[in-house]
């Protein structure tokens, strides 16, 4: 089983690199952001709740997102592994993931930290907002998301280091070069 946590600030390229990892290693992909955006599009109760948090640049409550994660994980049959994209985002979520995988006789294989400087993140997200119209990719919300990232999510770097799972990836350069570094890190596991 290959269970990869792809980690990084908003705009660090998690989604793009996840798609390539899925293609190369044949594992399943869970993007909590994509799950929530689909719920919003479908106008579900969960979508309505999620929209309130996302538009404010805030995280959803841990219990809610952990439940979503668990049911998505259970929907994968005969999986070769999973790439977790956008989860965990808090220490409580990382602990829940560890427990969930342990209950299935599994563990996180590696945490890939896509490291990108703040000015570059800002530029990328503003551009993405203009091109895709993603409602949370506007300057004001991006700033809030970056604050949330630093206060609630970045502590996971030390958490995964202490678990012995941390792998730094330089997240600036061509998509191909970054992907090559990711493949090298995964293949040496
Ligand atoms: P980003 O580009 O900011 O990393 P995502 O598409 O992964 O964006 O997530 C968009 C939003 O969905 C987040 O800003 C947050 O409000 C919510 N969200 C996604 N994943 C989680 C999570 N694991 N815990 C709490 N909220 C989440």
TrEMBL record:
Annotated Gene Ontology cellular component terms: cytoplasm
InterPro entries xref list: Adenylat/UMP-CMP_kin, Adenylat_kinase_CS, P-loop_NTPase
Keyword tRNA-binding (UniProt): no
UniProt GO molecular function: AMP kinase activity; ATP binding
Binding site for ATP: 11-16, 128, 173
Region (NMP): 31-60
Residues that coordinate or bind AMP: 32, 37, 58-60, 86-89, 93, 134, 145
Pfam families for this protein: ADK (PF00406)
EC number: 2.7.4.3
GO annotation, biological process: AMP salvage
Catalytic activity from the UniProt record: AMP + ATP = 2 ADP
Gene3D superfamilies: P-loop containing nucleotide triphosphate hydrolases (3.40.50.300)
SUPFAM superfamilies named in the record: P-loop containing nucleoside triphosphate hydrolases
CDD domains: ADK
Compartments, record wording: Cytoplasm
Keyword ATP-binding recorded: yes
Pathway: Purine metabolism; AMP biosynthesis via salvage pathway; AMP from ADP: step 1/1
Record function comment: Catalyzes the reversible transfer of the terminal phosphate group between ATP and AMP. Plays an important role in cellular energy homeostasis and in adenine nucleotide metabolism.
Subunit structure as annotated in this protein's UniProt entry: Monomer.
HAMAP family hit by this protein: Adenylate_kinase_Adk
Domain notes per entry: Consists of three domains, a large central CORE domain and two small peripheral domains, NMPbind and LID, which undergo movements during catalysis. The LID domain closes over the site of phosphoryl transfer upon ATP binding. Assembling and dissambling the active center during each catalytic cycle provides an effective means to prevent ATP hydrolysis.
PANTHER family attached to this UniProt entry: NUCLEOTIDE KINASE
Name under which the protein is recorded: Adenylate kinase
Native organism: Phocaeicola sartorii
Gene this protein is translated from: adk
């Amino acid at each position: 089983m290959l269970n990869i946590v792809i980690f990084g600030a908003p705009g660090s390229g998690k989604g793009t690199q996840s798609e390539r990892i899925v293609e190369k290693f044949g594992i399943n992909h869970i993007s909590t952001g994509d799950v929530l955006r689909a719920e919003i599009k479908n106008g579900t109760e969960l979508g309505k709740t999620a929209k309130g948090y996302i538009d404010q640049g805030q995280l959803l409550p841990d219990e809610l997102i952990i439940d979503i994660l668990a049911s998505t994980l259970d929907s994968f049959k005969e999986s070769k592994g999973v790439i977790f994209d956008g989860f965990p985002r808090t220490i409580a979520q990382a602990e829940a993931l560890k427990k969930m995988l342990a209950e299935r006789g599994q563990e996180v294989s590696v945490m890939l930290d896509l490291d990108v400087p703040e000015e570059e993140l800002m530029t990328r997200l503003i551009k993405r907002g203009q091109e895709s119209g993603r409602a949370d990719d506007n300057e004001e919300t991006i700033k809030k998301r970056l604050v949330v990232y630093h206060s609630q999510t970045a502590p996971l770097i030390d958490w995964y280091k202490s678990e012995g799972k941390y792998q730094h990836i330089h997240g600036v350069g061509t998509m191909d070069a970054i992907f090559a570094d990711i493949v090298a890190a995964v293949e040496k596991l």
